[in-house]
Amino acid sequence: MNGPAPQSPSEYFFERYPWNNKGVLFFIALLMSCSDFLAGPVVFFPFLFVIPVTLMAWNCGLRTALWLGALLCLIRFCIQYAWGIPYAFHVAVINALLRLAILFFITYLCGKLSEQTKALRARVRTLEGLLPTCSYCKDIRDENGEWQQIEEYVTSRSEVQFTHGICPKCVQKHFSGVMHHDGAKKEAESHDGQSSE
Questions:
Q1: Which of 25, 90, 131, 152 is most buried, judging by how many CB atoms fall within 10 Å of its CB?
Q2: d(Cα 71, Cα 75) in Å, to the nearest integer?
Q3: Where are the domains of the chain?
Q4: Which residue ranges does UniProt annotate as crossing the membrane (predicted)?
């Protein structure tokens, strides 16, 4: 009952295993590089590099995805020379830099979109829904139909920790007799102390 709230399954298939695993994504990138090499000097598949790099940016972070994109562009540059493509060196470098810039741009956009989507989901999870609350004791009914104290319910689903005190209105309402009695007693004691002097 006190454990963390169960995680809801991801909305998107590409956020689940195997698409969110770095090792799998590196393997897919390697397969795409191999297919690019095996296709020969005429057929090129560099656009397929976008798939593992964007999946990496979405699931594993922008920095890792940028490194993978740079590695794939370097491999593509080496494949060109392995097949002996008759480009001038400066043309091959310009093509590689353009490919790298475009891949980095797409990766950056995908990484930022992922961050915003995850932040938005967290905010929606925090704010959405109606909480069935008892009118008298303020306990909350959870998704299993069991009643929990509000502190327990909120603490199990968020990072919030509770401290307790008494507000002035409740002190007046619940402890006014004690406060008046203690105040009168202190006043009598101070009055007795002054009269004995």
A1: 25
A2: 6
A3: 13-127
A4: 24-53, 65-83, 89-111
